[in-house]
Write a structure and sequence with these properties.
138 residues; six-stranded antiparallel barrel; single chain; mainly beta
């Protein structure tokens, strides 16, 4: 397994699929995930020493390997929006009854000290963007 190896976007197929220059030859597996990174990150500064202790990457998207080739893979977006069905009719069972909304639990932080960082980038995904292998299936 190649940890933290960086690859690149080599082709954009459509709004849902990109090609990354990593494939079977690089031990990539179906279901592996990549983070597509923004070139800019945000500095993290130690509040005591005022020293820059690192940089947080800005993430344009996280994609999953859906098709594997020798030297490349096709990756697809995995984001989906889940909503409660506002038109639920009582007494009728349907597939729409199973939709639900989930929200991440918030941390009890001092909101006046929020500085941002590790947020999604709003920049467009482009050819040559870095794609970092996030996790590999075992």
């Amino acid at each position: 397994m190649m940890k933290n190896r960086e690859f690149k976007i080599v082709k954009i197929l459509d709004e849902y699929n990109v090609v990354i220059n990593a494939g079977i030859n690089q031990d990539i597996k179906q279901g592996d995930q990549f983070q597509i990174l923004d070139k800019e990150g945000s500095d993290v500064i130690d509040p005591d020493t005022k020293e820059i202790i690192g940089t947080l990457d800005l993430i344009k998207a996280t994609v999953e390997v859906t098709e594997l080739h020798e030297k490349m893979c096709i990756c697809s977006s995995q984001s989906s929006i889940k909503m409660n069905n506002p038109f639920k009719i009582t007494g009728i069972n349907s597939i729409t009854d199973s939709f639900s909304f989930s929200e991440q639990e918030k941390l009890n932080v001092d909101l006046t000290q929020v500085t941002g960082g590790k947020r999604k980038s709003n920049k467009k995904i482009q050819l040559g963007d870095v794609a970092r292998l996030l996790k590999t299936k075992q």
